[in-house]
Amino acid sequence: MTKEEKKKQAALAAIAYLKDGMHIGLGSGTTVNYFLQALQQRCAKGLQIRAMASSLCTQQWAKQYQIPLLADTYVQTLDVYVDSFDVLNHHGDIIKGGGGALVREKMLFQWADKTIWICDDEKLVDDCHCYALPVEVLPFTLAHTRHMLNEHGYKTSLRMAETQPFLTDNQHYILDVFVPKQVTLAQAHTFLMSFAAIVQTGYFHDEDNLCIIASSKGVCIHPVRDV
Ligand SMILES: O=C(CO)[C@H](O)[C@H](O)COP(=O)(O)O
């Protein structure tokens, strides 16, 4: 089974957790796009939900698929948040932000009553240090921020979109940060958040929510702590 087929299978399995009347937070990325396509079909068959997108890209897809959207000003509750991630280790440490939507993704994750993670098995890793940690940062005094991080052993790479720095939906930059081996992601997150220029990191921690993992053997569903 290809990686794309696995993503699709995981996304399809998440549909079973949706009920009429729910407010659903939508993550970002290609796996979520498969979820949106499945959701479009369920909505066409009568499922009554309303959704909130974590990125402009997801919002555009949701509109294209005619998924009813909520205006953020009026939403007080989110029943469930559905998203994928870049990597997850066996301790519930998650890296997100490959698509640069990490701030709004974390907001919806923190807000929702529960989260359903959807992924292919290639995203499960022993050590998250294999993947750079995306960090959303203010463009103001960027060179200084990078210099300070470098002084502490954190190498950084400014994410680009062709010849210009990649701009997030919040009009900030993304630094892909290589966390030193001896520092845990949780420690790195706390350290990085001490910089006023850093808006948020793509480090998430979760143990209790469900993770739907698709592999060539099929789909399995576990609490994150048992992955
Ligand atoms: O964190 C994210 C976007 O900011 C995505 O969830 C992550 O990058 C995974 O994307 P994909 O489903 O395309 O593999």
UniProtKB/TrEMBL annotation:
<dbReference type="GO" id="GO:0009052">
    <property type="term" value="P:pentose-phosphate shunt, non-oxidative branch"/>
</dbReference>
<dbReference type="Pfam" id="PF06026">
    <property type="entry name" value="Rib_5-P_isom_A"/>
</dbReference>
<comment type="pathway">
    <text>Carbohydrate degradation.</text>
</comment>
<dbReference type="GO" id="GO:0004751">
    <property type="term" value="F:ribose-5-phosphate isomerase activity"/>
</dbReference>
<dbReference type="InterPro" id="IPR004788">
    <property type="entry name" value="Ribose5P_isomerase_type_A"/>
</dbReference>
<dbReference type="InterPro" id="IPR037171">
    <property type="entry name" value="NagB/RpiA_transferase-like"/>
</dbReference>
<protein>
    <recommendedName>
        <fullName>Ribose 5-phosphate isomerase A</fullName>
        <ecNumber>5.3.1.6</ecNumber>
    </recommendedName>
</protein>
<dbReference type="InterPro" id="IPR050262">
    <property type="entry name" value="Ribose-5P_isomerase"/>
</dbReference>
<keyword id="KW-0413">Isomerase</keyword>
